[in-house]
Amino acid sequence: MSEFADIAVLITGGGSGIGLATARSLLKAGARVALAGRDEDRLEAAARELGHGERLLTVPADVSRCDDLDRLMDRVGERFGGLGGVFANAGVPFASRAADITEADYDLVVGTNFKGTLFTVQKALPLLRDGGSVVLNGSWLAHRGAAMGALYAASKAAVLSLASTLAPDLAERGIRVNAVTPGHVQTPMLDVVTGNQEQVREFFRGQVALGRIGDPEEIAETVLFLLSPRSSYITGQEIVVDGGLVGSIPN
Fold first, then answer.
1. Residues labelled catalytic
2. Strand order from edge to edge, sheet including 32-37
3. How many other C-beta atoms can be found within 10 angstroms of the C-beta atom of residue 3?
4. Fewest Cβ atoms nearer than 10 Å: which of 29, 83, 206, 207?
């Protein structure tokens, strides 16, 4: 019997990249999955790829809008009754010099990356069973200062702070809260950041001790570990999955 049999997990930002890879792994492990995303076309494509009938629910939702999150939770409750886990994965990339950041930029990035994460967890709490698990998606940029990264990095640093502060907040219900922090991972978001330029990708690879860009499935495996009973005594922690990007100097 799979450790995820009959367990429902909500994934935001699930139409592509790490979210989609995590959904694929969870379904293979026997879970029921609710997949939320802002891009309806990507969600439809994900649903066609993943299949699994009644075990998969896709719901268009913008996590920066609390009304959308309320509708999302209503749909999840109707289909699955409750949740055993949440992967708050939705996020938007952004790069700009500090002098050029606008209020609209701030609202988009912080609204999605931080506000969206906080309220995804809050709105899911009535559905989340005692002893459940929450995983938040961070970023290596919260650990290394980079020009053009002030707003995005700050929004992800706030997400990492949420993991350590929500953990004691929800501990009385036995709910664990942890963060996974990816490095450079081959996703549509990376395509945006690099402009699909091989020269930029090569520069990114050169920053990584293992000398390569990560696969979404490698992040998904860590998310599954944190959602599973195998991590039952881990909470308030961050697991960095970056090929040595943050903590090592490449040869």
1. 152
2. 56-60, 32-37, 8-12, 83-88, 128-137, 176-182, 238-241
3. 13
4. 206
Total residue length of the chain: 251
**Residue 217 identity:** E
**pLDDT at residue 43 greater than cutoff 70:** yes
3-state SS, residue 74: helix
Output DSSP code: residue 197: -
Token pair belonging to 183: 């490095």
Question: What pLDDT, on the 0 to 100 scale, is given for residue 1?
Answer: 44
211: number of Cβ within 10 Å: 12
52-58 long-range CB contacts below 8 Å, 24 or more apart?
52/27, 54/79, 55/27, 55/31, 56/23, 56/27, 56/32, 57/32, 57/33, 58/14, 58/34
Q: Residue 97 gets which letter from DSSP? A: -
Beta strands in 107-184 (DSSP E): 128-137, 176-182
CA distances from 78 to 40, 65, 81, 231 (A): 20, 20, 6, 29
Q: What is the gyration radius of the CA atoms in the chain, in angstroms?
A: 17
Q: How far apart are CA 138 and CA 113, in angstroms?
A: 9
Which pTM does this prediction carry?
A: 0.96
pLDDT tens for residues 48-84? 999 988 999 999 999 999 999 999 999 999 999 999 9
For the segment 150-174, what is each residue's pLDDT rounded down to a tens digit? Answer: 999 999 999 999 999 999 999 999 9
pLDDT of residue 52: 80
